[in-house]
Amino acid sequence: MDADLYVPVDGWLHRTDPRVKFLISIVMLVLCLVWRNWAFILGILILEHVMLATDHVPAERIGWVWKILAVLIVFIVVLWPVFDQSGTHVLWQWGWLRLTQENLLMAAVMGLRIPALGFACFITLFTTSQTKLVRGFTSLGMPYKAGLTLATALRYIPVFFSIFQSVSDAQRARGLDLSGKVNAAGKKRNVFVRLVDRFKSYLPIIIAVLIRAYKMSQSVGWAMESRGLNLNRNGAKRTYRVNLTMRIADWIILAITVAATAVSVWLMTWLS
């Protein structure tokens, strides 16, 4: 597991100001939620893949997104016609189940909308480091303490997961059974009892991780206090290690995004 979604490559999206990427993601999210035209959503999905490919994001990362979204997409496409019985152009009917042209079209729209929404978020997450991500939020008005909390959480997610894996491996080496498939007599358990026993077997690991987390939180708190966190002085101005500056390329991408959004809204209104 790689808790940091950032892909360290040198691409045009990586060099773009994070605030511009925030705008691009928000625009794509809103348009995909508002628009119900399958061709438009498919166009956004293709555009997202082109943006990631031209930014040199590895195909393995793009395939990983499709892998985690595949089950959800299949469920939505299959179950949407079952729960949505609207439409007048009936293509097939069996009892209460009706497949119409309208509900199948909406199933296709929803099946395309899920990956389009997902990739709209991953455009920013794949191409923005944690430092610039948090700095972009704080430059837009997020309180400094909230940004610091977010940065600390993102920083220590992979650390705590690594600790969890290390403790689990150590307990397995000492004979701890984490699967919960068989009892002490060697007989197989049913699914419910297996889940309960598996949760109980993870309790010592969770406790060890929590103790380690408490010790680390003390060290982090002392380090922040020694660096003057919450130190109030008259006329003092907070400085940042990472400063964001809009380049000419950023202004061009921003202008293209605004223009494309205006054209999309006009097209949506005209077709309606």
Summarize this, please?
The chain is mainly α. It contains nine helices and two strands; from the N terminus they run ααααββααααα. The longest helix is centred in the C-terminal third of the chain and has 36 residues, at 191-226.
Give the SSE map:
Elements: H1 12-15, H2 18-34, H3 38-54, H4 59-83, E1 90-94, E2 97-100, H5 101-127, H6 130-139, H7 144-173, H8 191-226, H9 248-271
Antiparallel strand pairs: 1-2
Structure description:
With 272 residues, the protein is mainly α. It is built from nine helices and two strands, in the order ααααββααααα. The chain has helices at 12-15, 18-34, 38-54, 59-83, 101-127, 130-139, 144-173, 191-226, 248-271; strands spanning 90-94, 97-100. Strands 1-2 form a two-stranded antiparallel ribbon. Strand 1 and strand 2 form a beta hairpin. Helix 2 runs antiparallel to helix 5. The two termini are 45 Å apart. Keywords: Cell membrane, Membrane, Transmembrane, Transmembrane helix. This is Energy-coupling factor transporter transmembrane component T. The chain crosses the membrane at residues 22-44, 64-83, 104-126, 146-164, 248-271. It is a multi-pass membrane protein.
